[in-house]
Design brief:
Layout lengths: L13 H18 L1 E5 H20 L2 H10 L3 H14 L8 E8 L6 E7 L6 H45 L1
Antiparallel strand pairs: 1-3, 2-3
Length: 167
Amino acid sequence: MRHNLGYRKLGRTKEHRRALLRNLATDLFRHERLTTTLPKAKELRPYAEKLITLARRDDLHSRRLVLGLISDKGVVKKLFDTLGPRFTSRPGGYSRILKLGPRPGDGADMAIVELVGSEPVFKKHKEEKKARRDRKAKVREAEAAETAAAKGAVESGGETEGRDEKK
């Protein structure tokens, strides 16, 4: 049983584990979605959510605290300018973990960590696909109408010429 053990050590030293969590958090904030192993994802979640909570405050002290943990200033700017305001009305639970199943190479359980509100929208993709299909159908109909008109003109033109020759 895991009573009173605190956190997952992930088979790393303290410094290596801190660096790992910083890098994972930086990538999560940069891309808003991340694929990693399940134990890493479960350790990343509280770490990242504490940083988002600091970003919600949006004062100089919290910005300096976050800069002490995340060295990429562009990511910190995004965290405070876009992600912090996105979660101001939310009392927690800024991220979600989706289990993917075992990795093919070594069987490690994989997971997706994503920020709430940054889910991919597949509905728009379906609408674009339908619009493309409709445009192609209209083009085909127009081509069919042109060919039918051309055939009709050739047939009617041939008949009139034949009549003129008989007279």
